[in-house]
Amino acid sequence: MPIARIATFLMVTSFLSTVGNLGVPVSGALDDDLSTLDIVPKIRTDRSSIARASSDFGHIVEAVPSGVFHPVSPSDIAALIHLSLFQQTPFTVAPRGKGHSSRGQALAPGGIVVDMSSLARGDHDHRVTVSVDGMYVDVGGEQLWIDVLHATLEHGLAPRVWTDYLRITVGGTLSNAGIGGQVFRHGPQISNVHELDVVTGTGDMITCSPIKSSDLFYAALGGLGQFGVITRARVGLEQAPKRVKWVRLAYRDVHSFTADQELLISKASGFDYVEGQVQLNRTLTEGRRSSSFFSASELARLTELAMDTGSPEIYYIEGAVYYDDHSAADVDQKLEALLEELSFVPGFVFARDVPYVQFLDRVGQEEQKLRSAGVWDVPHPWLNLFVPGSRIHDFAAGVFHGILGHTRPVGLILMYPMNRNRWDDRMTTVTPDEDVFYAVGLLRSAVATGDLERLERENEAVLEFCDREEIGCKQYLPHHASQEGWRRHFGAKWGRVAELKATYDPRAILSPGQGVFPFPAAASGAASATIAAS
After folding, report:
1. Global pTM?
2. Is 115 assigned a catalytic role?
3. Residue in 164, 272, 318, 505 annotated catalytic
4. CB atoms within 10 A of CB 504
C-alpha cells in the first residue's frame, strides 16, 4: 500500500513524529509543489481519529483509513490530492461531512478521509455569506443546513428546498440530490444551485456554473463525489415565512392516498410541502405508542382505525402551508379549501401551528429523543428508492402487503410523489423516466439482536421483487455491489459518467466507498474510465 511508504519522506521533512506511521515515497514531483509539505501535519493517525472515520451513520460497514486529514482551506484539499497523484500508486481520498451515509459511502479503506468540518474552524463568517440583492447564499460545502437556515433567516430569507434532517452538510446532500417535501414545486436541492467551487480528482480548483465549466457543474451535482469535492455552493433563496400550518391526514388505502398526493403536487398553489408515510399497522397495535407529532389520544384513534381496516397498513399525507404576517388572516381559509378537495378518512385531520424553524428542524428534535433512548447510534440498513408513478400500486401491494405486511419495524417508511419536470436531466442523478415518480424510504433501525440480518433480508427481497416484476425503480443514495450494477443504475447516462470520470478523476481516487469505479481504475490512468464506458 503506497501510503505505508511515507516514512522516508517524513524523516526527510521532519514530520515523522506528527503523523506516526503514515508516509509516502519520496518523489521528485514534490519539489514542484512545496505546498504539499504543509499538509502532512494536518493528517492524524491517532486511534480516536481513525475509529471515528472508520464507520458511518449506517453502522453496517467498517473501513479503516490510514489517516484523517484536517484542511483549513480548499487549497489544502487540492494539495492532498496532488500528493496522492505524485505516487506511483495513489491513495484514495474521501470527503466526510457528518458521515450520514448508510453503506460506507463516506469511507476510505486504506486511504485518507478528509474531515470537511475543519474548513469551518476559524473562518465561519466567511463560509456562509448571504447576498440579499442577489437572493442567494454562498456556503461552504462543510456547512450544516441547520446553520445555513439560521444565517439566512437573519436576513428574512431561506433556501427553497430542505432535506428532512438538517444536521448534514451542504456538500453531502448536493453530491446526492437533496430531497424533501418541497421538491415537487422547486426540484431537489441540486436544481437550486447557481454555482460551485469544486476540487477535482486532478487537484484542480474550479469554479463552475451552467455557463462556466458546465460539464463539471452538472457532473458534481448528484455525482456521488466521483468528480470532485464540493467546497462552496451558491444556493438560491426566497423570502422566508414565519410560521407553518402543519397537517397529517389519515387514509385507509393506497389508491386514495396516492390520488390525493398527486392532486396536491399538480397544483400551482396550495401546500408548500407534501410528503407521506406508510404506517404498518403492527407498529400501532403491538409497538411502542409514542410520537413527536401525535398525542396519546390521537394515537389511540389511529390504532382503532388500523384495526378496523383489516389491511396491513394505513397511510398519512403530511402537508404544510407557510405563512407570514401578511398572509396570516387567510391561511386557515386556504387550508380549509385544500382539505375539501381531499379524500382522507373523515375526522382524521391532525393539525399543528408551529414556527417555521421548528417545522424544518422537526427531525433534529426527534433525534434528541432517540439519543436519550439509546436508539440513534444503532445500525440503519436504510433503503431509498425512486418508484415510477405508474407502478406505485404494484409496489405497495408487493412490498407493504407482502414482504413487510407482518413486520413491526422501528423507524419510518416515507412515500411521496415528485414531478420529474423539476429535475434537470443534465445532472448525474438518475430518476425513473415518468412525469411523476415516488420517493419511498424504508428508514428502519436495528435495535435488537437479529434485527440487522432480518432487515437486510427484507431489503434484498424488496430489490428482488422490483427486478422480478420490472417495477423500474432507481435507488436514491445508491449502493451497488458491482460495476455492472452501477451500469444498470445509470442506464443511458453511464457512458457520459465514465467519460467525466476519465476527465476529472482519471485515477479514481475520490470517494472510493461509493464503489462506482474500482480503485485503481487501471494502470493506464485516464484511459480507465474510457475503457469502462465501452
Report:
1. 0.91
2. no
3. 164
4. 24
